[in-house]
Amino acid sequence: MSAAVVLGLDVGGSSVKYRLASATPSERIPEALAQGTVSTPKKDPVAGLAAIARDVTGSHRLVAVVVAIPGLVDETTGTVLRSANLPALDGLALGPALSAELDATVGVINDGRAAAVAEARWGAGAGERDVFTLALGTGIAGSHIVDGRVVDGAHGIAGELGHVVVEPSGAVCACGQRGCLETVIGAPALRRAWNRAGGDGSPKDLLAAYEAGDERAHRVVDRGAGALADAILTLLALVDPGVIVVGGGLASAPHRIVVRARALVDERATFHRVPPIVPATLGKWAGAVGAVAEARELAARVPVGISLN
Ligand SMILES: [Zn+2]
User: Using CA atoms, how far apart are residues 29 and 22, in angstroms rounded to an integer?
Assistant: First the structure.
């Protein structure tokens, strides 16, 4: 019989990253039997993702797939509730549909969550049992991971550090509150602040100006760092993580803010224990690694010889 394998698919707006691994359970990072990037199927996502899975699997026996999606998902039913980047998936019961196509168990998870678990277990959080991951980009995502599992609260929404209020009379956030951390150091907010200060271009340009000693850039970065320090002090008081891992699409520009925020946290902390604040290390593959690891766990829960279809 051919070898039993599991597949992780990290589905983005323009590309799908895949990672194929043996189905054998292990505490170590799922070693890639195959890994790569293909275009995201736009028209018929179920048929398109099934075709990708068949191509990647080849002659192996596929037992479980986990699809990581940028958006809101219901993990228990495998349904995509809302995905801004992939409207074709909105409302789709992707798990059951793909499971029927592939004759394999299929799970659906949020991509940020997949990446956070991978970073906590095998990336910058490796060796620490209590990890908080922070992804800085257009939005700000947070995940608290203990013993390799996300602690997501009674209603699945814990960890939302981006929606901690840091400027009570600040700008209105996408979530409806005023002055969330995201309204100060989310990428669009940084761009607006930089442009208002008379600067040109994106958060990356802001960083370049900061490095060049531009005073306006220093004011924008200082405000962002102060806001992030407030949020981190709240985090330390509530969660007391062993390490904070910072990643995300715009990591390089906000990282300057992270360094400044760290200094402010050190100055202001009293009873708090300030943990290491470190950059994420798995980079763009974190989501696919997290997805294939989940697929392995899914495979382990399905008794041999029983098909879920
Ligand atoms: Zn908010």
Answer: 11
